[in-house]
């Protein structure tokens, strides 16, 4: 078995991988163990590390970054409301309406035009975006829109015109969700 120097591991870019391999090198450089035992331990540790790294990469879904928003891989023609997204809103996004515009950008849907918006929807869209909602996901687009609107509003989708609207939920429904 050949011994790899630390310089050979410079190709590893992730900090977690680097910590793993640098710890591995410190174990391998311990001269107290005999050579035969060392080679077996090196082999076992290397195999365990490779299996761990390969399984970690196999379990992750591919992410396509789009600015501050990432859409996880989705087949063509699938329902955009079931699409899993992860988003971090930039500082320029100040209101709930701005955040919803960012979320809807790649979905094919848009908020209903201003003249058609109810007073309740206009009130919702001008609310300031809460700091704890500057980062959402991973969750479906539907859950992200519901999270931004809060429990007091019901999401209304028009698949024919591809528009999104909101209305106030009756108080009984809001109380049942609490």
Per-chain topology:
Blueprint: H1 15-28, H2 35-59, E1 63-66, E2 69-72, E3 84-88, H3 96-104, E4 110-111, H4 119-125, E5 135-140, H5 141-149, E6 153-158, E7 163-168, H6 171-177
Parallel strand pairs: 4-7
Antiparallel strand pairs: 1-2, 2-3, 3-5, 6-7
Helix pairs in contact: 1-2, 3-5
Beta strand count? 7
What is the chains' assembly state?
single chain
Strand order of the largest sheet: 1-2-3-5
Reported by name, the CATH topology of the largest domain is: Phage tail protein beta-alpha-beta fold
- What is Rg? 25 Å
CATH architecture type of the largest domain: 3-Layer(bab) Sandwich
Query: Uncertain runs with pLDDT below 50, 5 residues or more?
Result: 1-18, 53-67
Give the overall shape, derived from the CA principal axes.
Answer: globular
What portion of residues is helical? 25-40%
The helix/strand class is alpha+beta
In N-to-C order, the SSE pattern is HHEEEHEHEHEEH
Q: What is the end-to-end distance? A: 62 Å
Please explain how this structure is put together:
The chain has helices at residues 15-28, 35-59, 96-104, 119-125, 141-149, 171-177, and strands at 63-66, 69-72, 84-88, 110-111, 135-140, 153-158, 163-168. With 178 residues, the chain is α+β, with helices and mostly antiparallel strands. It folds into two domains: 6-59, no CATH class; 63-177, Phage tail protein beta-alpha-beta fold, CATH 3.55.50.
Give keywords.
178 residues, Phage tail protein beta-alpha-beta fold, alpha+beta, 3-stranded mixed sheet, 2 domains, globular, 4-stranded antiparallel sheet
What is shown here, in short?
This protein is of the alpha+beta class and 178 residues long. The protein has helices at 15-28, 35-59, 96-104, 119-125, 141-149, 171-177, and strands at residues 63-66, 69-72, 84-88, 110-111, 135-140, 153-158, 163-168. The chain has a 4-stranded antiparallel β-sheet with strand order 1-2-3-5. Strands 4-7-6 form a 3-stranded mixed β-sheet.
């Amino acid at each position: 078995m050949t011994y790899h120097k630390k310089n050979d591991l410079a190709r590893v870019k992730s900090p977690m991988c680097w910590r793993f391999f640098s710890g591995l090198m410190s174990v391998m450089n311990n001269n107290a163990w005999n050579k035969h035992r060392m080679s077996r331990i090196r082999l076992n540790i290397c195999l365990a590390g490779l299996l761990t790294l390969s399984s970690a990469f196999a379990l992750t879904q591919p992410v396509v970054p789009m600015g501050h928003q990432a859409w996880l891989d989705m087949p063509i023609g699938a329902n955009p409301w079931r699409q899993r997204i992860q988003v971090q809103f930039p500082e320029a996004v100040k209101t709930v309406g701005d955040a919803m515009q960012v979320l809807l950008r790649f979905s094919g849907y848009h908020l209903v035009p201003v003249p058609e918006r109810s007073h309740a929807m206009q009130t919702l869209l001008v609310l300031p975006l809460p700091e704890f909602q500057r980062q959402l996901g991973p969750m479906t687009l539907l859950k992200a829109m519901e999270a931004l609107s809060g429990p007091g509003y019901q999401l209304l989708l028009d698949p024919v015109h591809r528009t999104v609207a909101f209305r106030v939920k009756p108080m009984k429904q809001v109380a049942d969700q609490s």
